[in-house]
Write a structure and sequence with these properties.
175 residues, single chain, alpha+beta, 8 strands, four-stranded antiparallel beta sheet
Length: 175
């Protein structure tokens, strides 16, 4: 089967730019529908404010400022095709499309965590150093975890707890 005949959804993360790369990652999502020959990429890029959510800003699986990305999620076929509309709807509902703050968020990790919450079928498990993935506004401190498989309580991503089955039976993570 050629890739043109296959829907694909992938999430990548690479160390952030400069010295911050020792402590944090920058994630992005790419997808293509069955029959398409090119991927669509979305990620949040702070220095592009107020348009922090560019489309096709960089190569789908390219280096991020010289750092090779790690593939976090890879869905193919009918499962991928069925979640693309939900992913696009989640992007449109991202509440911080005009805002960016490196720490504690909202940032690129907040964006991917939002998509993970809205599209549980993505089964997104952002790494521990995805600074900003736990960012929740003070007006909404309780909700679904970024993986879409548990419960999270978080105060601006600075203090909180997540409980769920994604990383084992009732694992608890302090943020």
């Amino acid at each position: 089967m050629q890739l043109v005949d296959l829907a694909i959804v992938q999430v990548y993360a690479a160390p952030t730019y400069g010295w911050r790369g020792y402590f944090a990652v920058h994630p992005w999502i790419i997808y293509k529908r069955r029959g398409e020959t090119a991927y669509t990429r979305y990620d949040v890029v702070g220095w592009r404010a107020p348009q922090v959510l560019p489309r096709n800003y960089a190569l789908p699986d390219g280096l991020w400022y010289g750092a090779p990305p790690e593939l976090l999620v890879d869905h193919r076929g009918k499962d991928a095709e069925s979640m693309i509309d939900d992913i696009e709807a989640a992007m449109l509902s991202y509440p911080y499309a005009g805002r960016y703050r490196s720490y504690p968020g909202p940032n690129s990790n907040t964006f991917l965590a939002h998509i993970g919450r809205q599209v549980p079928a993505l089964k997104l498990d952002l790494p521990a150093n995805a600074i900003g993935k736990d960012y929740r506004p003070l007006t909404s401190p309780v909700g679904m975890s970024p993986s879409g498989s548990g419960l999270q309580i978080s105060l601006l991503g600075l203090l909180g707890v997540s409980v769920g089955g994604k990383k084992g039976w009732n694992s608890i993570c302090w943020v």
